[in-house]
Amino acid sequence: MPAPDRRTIGELLADSDALARETLLDATPEIAPAMIRSWNQQMPYPGKVAGNLAQVTVARSVPGPMPGATLRAIASPTSCRPSIGSDFDLNDLRGAGQIMYANVGSADAMCDRVIANFTNLPTIFPAGSGRWQASGAGWQLTLEGRNDHGTVLGELRRSLFFAVTHVGELRRVDGSRFKASEAADALEGFKVALSFALARWIATVAPVGIDIAGNQVWQQWAKWRCDPVSTNYLPWWGGHGDDLEHFIDRLLNAWFASEQERDVIRYLAILLIAAHHWGTTIEAKIMLVHSGFDYLSWVN
Q1: Among 88, 87, 156, residue whose Cα is nearest residue 118
Q2: Does the chain have fewer CB atoms within 10 Å around its N or its C terminus?
Q3: Which residue has the higher pLDDT, 171 or 129?
Q4: CA–CA distance from 243 to each of 173, 193, 247, 249, 283 (Å)?
Q5: What is the pLDDT of residues 9-44, one digit of tens each?
Q6: Is 242 helix (H, G, I), strand (E, B) or coil?
Q7: 109 touches 177 (CB < 8 A)
Q8: What are the residues whose beta carbons fall under 8 Å from the beta carbon of 58, sequence distance 6 or more?
């Protein structure tokens, strides 16, 4: 007969935390599906699908805060050894290859607004489409769903694919200009906030910075992480989006408070999303949640 387990609650939590960390650290893309069935596969570099990107994004003029603006993917990178730095891999003499991460334009370029595509976002309003705004830490994000959002979302629920479901415009609340690097930080904050709220990763794709004269001064091309649309998740914010707006406001204020706060939010989001993933085993869910509570006890 096995001896009774004499460990305290604190010791059990510490052991489960250590096991969860070891599992995550030891996981590789090859063996992760067998260890934790929630390994987030990164989507291919968007340059590979740039030719099809404009066909699936919303491309129409809209009235209101964005007069005359056409919301669609604007960036058009070339494949002939662009002058974008050294972080790319050219695998033959013709200049063909894959750009792992690239900023086209200066990180200090002054922008008036940034247009970005959002993938696999659900219905925020009951109607499915329409314009929705959220703000926090001095930033304002305006999202507009595509006209066929309901149809596309239904297809996504029956597949493991992704699609551009919304187009977003990022501005400063006070209308001031901002650096491209600041916009990248803000977009990451909104991405983490929306992913945290949905308990799955959504992605911001191919953002383009536009100056006050309407010129494109910055583009970002990189791999991104996006989870499939959940079939059994009901939005907790109801049909009007007010609760979601309050949540994003609080998270973004903490996101820009300090680097330490940002690291805490990012790590907790990773644990929460992995624990809620449809493929994560019950054992892994328990370990990940315990790790999150243990982590909060340390940082607080």
Answers
A1: 156
A2: N
A3: 171
A4: 20, 13, 6, 10, 31
A5: 666 666 666 655 555 544 444 444 443 333 333 333
A6: helix
A7: no
A8: 71, 72, 144, 145, 146, 147, 164, 166, 167
Bridge partners of 3, per DSSP, are none
Query: Which residues 6+ apart lie within 8 Å of 13 measured at CB?
Result: 290, 293, 294
CB 169 within 8 A of CB 113: yes
Closest CA to 191 of 236, 241, 251, 233: 251
Strand order in the sheet with 131-136: 101-104, 216-222, 203-210, 113-119, 164-172, 139-145, 131-136
d(CA 16, CA 19): 5
Average pLDDT on 233-242 reads 74
User: Strand, helix or coil at 169?
Assistant: strand
3-state secondary structure 68-107: CCECCCCCCCCCCCCCCCCCEEECCCCCCEEECEEEECCC
Per the CB < 8 A criterion, the answer to whether 77 and 104 are in contact is: yes
Lowest mean pLDDT of 55-69, 166-180, 249-263, name the range: 55-69
* Encoded tokens for 78: 């070339």
Separation between Cα atoms, residue 57 and residue 4, nearest integer Å: 59
Angle separating helix axes 242-255 and 180-198, nearest 10 degrees: 130
Question: Cα–Cα distances in Å, from 135 out to 68, 92, 163, 204?
Answer: 23, 45, 24, 16
> The tokens 């820009």 sit on which residue?
256
Name residue 220's beta-bridge partners: 103
